[in-house]
Design brief:
The N and C termini lie far apart (about 85 Å). This protein has a six-stranded mixed sheet with strand order 6-9-8-7-12-13, sandwiched between helices. Strands 2-1-3-5-4 form a five-stranded mixed sheet, with helices on both faces. Helix 8 packs parallel to helix 9 and helix 11 crosses helix 14. Strand 25 and strand 26 form a beta hairpin. The chain is built from 28 helices and 28 strands. The protein is of the alpha+beta class. It is about 45% helix and about 15% strand.
């Protein structure tokens, strides 16, 4: 007979009549005979107590009262006796307890309680309130604590859900937001609504449905607050909503409203609406005062930034995103809901952010960047198709050579694009035993790990071949629109370190499938990973020069300031003297290879050291192994950044091997020596110790740019190495991005950079990590150079140390050939 673990009734009466229902007991629960007494239970009790709920005053139980094999509830058939008998007992116990609210911990109780059963998943319904006829009460869905133990970064979501449960546990009534929607207006309704908004200068929250395809925007929702929304339809269920003359007038009314600078606008992910409305309909949005995606990022940078998650955190709106794309009245209501939820989230976020002055300043800074970022999205960059074709031809020839080498070494063709072929190569031809962690896979990391261990020459060729095929794929993604310009979409908060990210553009282009069906796909690509070799395809327009400015040292300056504040000023003093740390390391390596003491360089006067580093010359030729003449210097640059971010020697050597397409094969031992030299001069471990202490004591890192990141994956105040590595990278990357963004902002808002018609003399065209690129009219070259130097002087205060990251740049006909110095 299986051991049953009965549900647990409260030991004491309290004001919050909550029933917590999980899936099934585990080994600890089976031993003690009480639900949630193991690791999951300890975490759950900690969360409950953190929200001022007393566990002994709550009902705690499970859908199933017996332990499933391997603690896997899916081992039991939901309609089988184990779960159905458990549900019968649970229904009886809930009827006796009569809770005001049931918290469904995981998919199984959600399935048992939800009117849609197995169609509802915890991934979508987490944080939602709903009525359950099965449990005869209202419910709230959230993650099971066992999941949180596996994905600890989601702990803030569990905490937020338990806080919501506490708020709704005092009564049995399900009270959801009451909204009023107008979804099928007539022309006069639209006239009156737009006129009233503009005359009263009412703040509006807007959302569009649709894409930049042949249909365009299908509907525009406008909310004046969390309770009321007005939807202007254009295309509903495959049909025009208005006749031709009506639609022309409606679009004119919409364009006037969105361009009205006296009307404040709030959006979720404003860059999307910004771009689509301008690209497809030539409509400009002015006076965007809030973006809930950007604001949410300041509060919870590690979380998903979608409106559905925000709704679950900041509102009582149940999950509704499954209504998108269904058509008809349901999609009109969906559009209206998006607007009011945006308004409600924005109000709630503002209430939290007002107590975080630095974060609020950083958020306002990001909002101010939206027009300039959208300009780069719209403008794009001229693409040289002839040079692009030459790059493609070159990489195809390189692929052919490597493929021939590999096939000869193996004795049969090996398809580097085929996972089965690569698996055969690893585990049959080479006879390697699969790593337990990865299984029988052939992904890039596994290939690199095997090569580091075995140094097999055929495997090295395969890795190089995979890299070349990836490059060919990247070249194929460099597609332009019909005007010959390549565009991309930007995201100001696309990374946890507040670095700008990019992806393919929303400037869609049509194509026909083999069966003749019209489809639309994005153009362009992610610009952040474009190699320097490919940058000559990004060109200036006729009678324009292409310019680029890079920050010198970039992330290193923040690390140097941190170390100086901690009592180790060597790196900062080197930077201030114009000495590049990687070149000092190169000199130290040369001394080491000559069997001399590299520490002697630490005793040299800085002027003498500066002269030595400036005297270093690298060959333009490659050595017998195909490595560039400056390969040791390139390694030292990787050593500096990798060690700053907590990278171990094995990972460092693998990274160098991968980044060099397999040309630079640094052993783990050599990588350890290189890192030793870095530590010998700069003592970067001092900073790592400080970061770990900050995480342990505060749980967050505050950056000089104003951005603050709280690390949700810290377990019980003890950050693990992966969290420390993320924290080590945070402020350097964030500050570098801030300087580039501030230069962009200076450029955009400088009135001297505007012609009488409002266009720009100096245009920004693209941004990647620590560099900004663009073009100026050749006639304005001298003026533009002086202006760029002014815009890029951005001071930072890091722990009381004032620094200005230096920059260098040049100009020329394209992004790569910016050889003429500024």
């Amino acid at each position: 007979m299986p051991t049953l673990v009965p549900n647990s009734f409260p030991k004491h009466t309290g004001p919050h009549r909550i029933a917590l229902v999980g899936e099934a007991p585990g080994a600890d629960e089976e031993l003690v005979g009480t639900p949630f007494v193991g690791a999951s239970g300890k975490l759950l009790r900690s969360v409950l107590e953190g929200t001022n709920l007393v566990p002994d005053q709550l009902f705690i139980g499970n859908v199933c009262q017996q332990r499933p094999p391997s603690n896997d509830i899916s081992s039991f058939d939901f309609n089988g006796p184990e779960i159905q008998d458990g549900l019968a007992a649970l229904h009886t116990d809930l009827r006796d307890f009569s809770p005001n609210l049931v918290v469904c911990l995981g998919n199984t109780p959600l399935q048992a309680s939800h009117p849609w059963g197995s169609d509802a998943t915890i991934g979508t319904w987490r944080g939602s309130l709903f009525w359950s006829d099965a449990f005869n009460t209202k419910c709230l869905a959230t993650f099971h604590p066992a999941y949180i133990l596996r994905v600890f970064g989601d702990l803030p979501l569990l905490r937020a859900d338990i806080q919501k449960a506490r708020r709704h546990s005092l009564t049995k009534d399900l009270v959801l937001p009451q909204r009023t929607f107008i979804t099928r207006p007539n022309l006069e309704d639209v006239r009156l609504f737009c006129g009233r908004i503009r005359s009263q200068h009412t703040r509006i929250n807007i959302d569009i449905e649709g894409w930049a395809n042949n249909v365009g925007v299908t509907m525009l929702g406008i909310a004046t607050g969390p309770s009321d929304a007005f939807v202007i339809p254009f295309w509903v269920s495959g049909c025009h909503y208005w006749n031709e003359s009506e639609e022309a007038e409606v679009w004119e009314l919409v364009a006037g409203l969105l361009a009205d600078e006296n009307v404040e606008k709030v959006l979720q992910n404003a860059l999307y609406e910004y771009f689509v409305l301008h690209w497809k309909h030539r409509i400009i949005i002015t006076n965007i005062v809030d973006d809930t995606m950007l604001k949410h990022f300041e509060l919870f940078p590690e979380m998903d930034k979608g409106l559905d998650l925000q709704a679950s955190l900041y509102t009582d709106q149940p999950y509704y995103k499954d209504q998108r794309g269904v058509g008809g009245d349901a999609e009109l209501v969906y559009n209206a809901t998006d607007c009011v939820v945006t308004a409600e989230c924005n109000d709630a976020q503002s209430g939290i952010l007002k107590n975080l002055n630095r974060s609020s300043e950083h958020y306002r800074f990001n909002v101010s960047l939206l027009p300039a970022i959208n300009y780069m999205q719209l403008r794009g960059c001229l693409l040289d198709s002839t040079k692009l074709a030459a790059h493609l031809e070159l990489v195809e020839s390189e692929i052919a050579v490597l493929q021939d080498q590999l096939d000869t070494m193996v004795g049969r063709p090996v398809n580097a694009k085929s996972n089965p072929d690569k698996q055969w190569f690893l585990y049959e031809f080479l006879g390697y035993k699969p790593y337990e962690r990865y299984g029988r896979t052939a992904k890039e990391e596994v290939l690199l790990r095997f090569y580091q261990r075995e140094k097999n020459p055929a495997l090295r060729v395969l890795i190089q071949l995979v890299a070349k095929r990836t490059r060919k794929s990247d070249i194929g993604k460099l597609t332009s629109n019909t005007d010959g310009r390549l565009r991309c979409s930007y995201n100001l908060v696309g990374t946890n370190t507040a670095r700008l990210s990019s992806s393919e553009s929303q400037a869609l282009e049509p194509y026909f499938t083999k069966t003749g069906i019209l489809k639309w796909e994005g153009s362009g690509t992610n610009l952040q990973n474009q190699t320097k070799e490919l940058r000559d395809v990004f060109c200036a327009d006729p009678v324009y020069d292409f310019w680029q400015i890079d920050l010198e040292g970039a992330d290193g300056w923040t690390v140097a300031a941190d170390l100086a504040a901690l009592g180790a000023p060597t790196m900062l003093d080197d930077y201030k003297a114009g000495i590049k740390p990687a070149k000092v390391l190169y000199l130290m390596l040369e001394a080491h290879e000559r069997k001399e003491d590299p520490a002697k360089l630490n005793n040299l006067p800085r002027a003498e050291l500066a002269a030595l580093t400036k005297a270093i010359k690298f060959s333009d030729d490659r050595d017998a192994e195909g490595r560039p003449g400056d390969w040791k210097y390139l390694c030292m640059k990787r050593v500096q950044h990798g060690t700053n971010y907590g990278m171990e020697a094995e990972k460092l050597s693998a990274t160098i091997f991968k980044d060099s397409d397999g040309l630079i094969d640094l052993s783990k031992q050599d990588a350890s020596v290189y890192q030793y030299l870095y530590r010998l001069r700069y003592n970067p471990d001092l900073r790592a110790t400080w970061i770990e202490r900050e995480l342990r004591d505060k749980g967050y890192i505050q950056t000089a740019s104003g951005f603050r990141r709280k690390f949700g994956a810290i377990r019980y105040g003890r950050p693990d190495p992966a969290v420390v590595r993320e924290a080590l990278a945070l402020e350097p990357q964030c500050n570098t991005t801030y300087v580039c963004n501030m230069a962009l902002r200076n450029m955009w808002y400088d009135p001297a950079n505007r012609t009488s018609r409002g266009s720009l003399f100096v245009e920004p065209l693209l941004q990647v990590h620590d560099a900004l690129g663009g073009q100026w009219g050749t006639a304005y070259k001298d003026w533009a150079i002086d202006k760029l130097k002014t815009w890029f002087k951005v001071p930072l205060n890091i722990h009381g140390i004032e620094i200005t990251i230096p920059f260098s740049g040049g100009y020329g006909p394209n992004w790569k050939d910016t050889k003429t110095p500024l």
